[in-house]
């Protein structure tokens, strides 16, 4: 009888253990299902902060860096269409003048432009830009300018110039531009700072280590200053971006995961203040397919899995890029 009682007791204990772990499993699955449902609600149903809060139609100015191509240019046009005056900051004056003229004629807004090559910008250049911006009411800053490795490259083989340019453009420019405009935003207790982030900052990307590190910095820094500035009425949003058709991405054809700049920027502006697929503070992944990918990275498999996944992708891209260089060199030699 004692053996039977012990067996029954042990069976009950095992059943209880199975039930507890089963309940935990159900709870985990339910939590992940709810978090995925929230992503879908965010990207398809919710509306973000209206840019009218940041001076649209009321004399406010948006400063956009890297404003003559791709995402930056699209920000300029879409914000102008919402009646924000525009300051274009980029390195090619002819492009700046052409875009400024088109914005004024199309949307009847005011524009200004400032020539700045962020890879070579000195303290004097930044001081001149500050003096240029002081007289106007800057209500929004889009830290869009960025640069990347030419091809995936092991860190020890990367040139000092590429490393320096990435740090200067992706990190220092964002900090210095923000430092310039934040004081007047604090005075008015209102402002919006959009930082163009990257999935390379979400998951470390081998062979793009400096670029990946710069975007990881931007993510962490945005969260930190976002917490500092929120009580002062300033919203900071790091936009977590997967690939977009652009000169920097070297992608020319749109797909489900790779939008053109126009729908991508529209998603950013329509969902200001909404996290979308992002799970970190002061961060948004607004474009629907990027949001789902962001959720998958945060919720499926380990971080080591995703780093290794990035490693394999970049090894393949590097191999194809080197093969292309060899073919071009051979063709050039043959033509001589």
TrEMBL record:
Keywords: Endoplasmic reticulum, Fatty acid biosynthesis, Fatty acid metabolism, Lipid biosynthesis, Lipid metabolism, Membrane, NADP, Oxidoreductase, Transmembrane, Transmembrane helix. It is found in: Endoplasmic reticulum membrane. Its main location: endoplasmic reticulum. It catalyses: a very-long-chain (3R)-3-hydroxyacyl-CoA + NADP(+) = a very-long-chain 3-oxoacyl-CoA + NADPH + H(+). It is a single-pass membrane protein. Substrate binds at residue 198. Pathway: Lipid metabolism; fatty acid biosynthesis. Gene3D superfamilies: NAD(P)-binding Rossmann-like Domain (3.40.50.720). It is an enzyme of class 1 (oxidoreductase). Its EC number is 1.1.1.330. The chain crosses the membrane at residues 20-45. GO terms for cellular component: endoplasmic reticulum membrane. One of its GO terms (molecular function) is very-long-chain 3-oxoacyl-CoA reductase activity. It comes from the Eukaryota. Component of the microsomal membrane bound fatty acid elongation system, which produces the 26-carbon very long-chain fatty acids (VLCFA) from palmitate. Catalyzes the reduction of the 3-ketoacyl-CoA intermediate that is formed in each cycle of fatty acid elongation. VLCFAs serve as precursors for ceramide and sphingolipids. Belongs to the short-chain dehydrogenases/reductases (SDR) family. This is Very-long-chain 3-oxoacyl-CoA reductase. It comes from Modicella reniformis.
């Amino acid at each position: 009888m004692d053996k039977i009682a012990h067996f029954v007791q042990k069976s009950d204990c095992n059943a209880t253990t199975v039930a507890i772990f089963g309940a935990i499993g159900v709870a985990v699955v339910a939590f992940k299902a709810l978090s995925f449902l929230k992503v879908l609600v965010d990207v398809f149903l919710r509306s973000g902060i209206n840019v009218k809060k940041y001076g649209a139609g009321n004399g406010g100015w948006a400063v956009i860096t890297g404003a003559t191509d791709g995402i930056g240019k699209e920000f300029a046009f879409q914000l102008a269409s919402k009646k924000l005056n525009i300051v274009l900051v980029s390195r090619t004056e002819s492009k700046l003048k052409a875009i400024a003229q088109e914005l004024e004629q199309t949307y009847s807004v005011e524009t200004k432009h400032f020539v700045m090559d962020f890879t070579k910008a000195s303290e004097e250049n930044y001081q001149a830009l500050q003096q240029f911006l002081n007289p106007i009411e800057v209500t929004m800053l889009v830290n869009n300018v960025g640069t990347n490795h030419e091809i995936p490259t092991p860190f020890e083989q990367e040139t000092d110039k590429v490393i320096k340019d990435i740090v200067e453009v992706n990190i220092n420019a964002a900090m210095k531009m923000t430092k310039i405009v934040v004081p007047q935003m604090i005075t008015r207790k209102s402002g919006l700072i959009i930082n163009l982030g990257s999935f390379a900052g979400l998951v470390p990307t081998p062979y793009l280590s400096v670029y990946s590190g710069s975007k990881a910095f931007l993510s962490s820094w945005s969260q930190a200053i976002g917490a500092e500035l929120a009580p002062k009425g300033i919203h900071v949003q790091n936009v977590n971006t997967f690939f977009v058709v652009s000169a920097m991405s070297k992608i020319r054809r749109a797909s489900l995961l790779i939008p053109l700049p126009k729908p991508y920027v529209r998603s950013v502006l329509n969902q200001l203040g909404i996290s979308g697929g992002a799970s970190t503070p002061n961060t948004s992944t607004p474009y629907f397919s990027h949001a789902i990918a962001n959720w998958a990275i945060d919720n499926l498999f380990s971080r080591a899995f995703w780093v290794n996944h990035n490693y394999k992708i970049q090894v393949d891209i590097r191999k194809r890029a080197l093969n292309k260089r060899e073919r071009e060199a051979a063709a050039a030699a043959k033509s001589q």
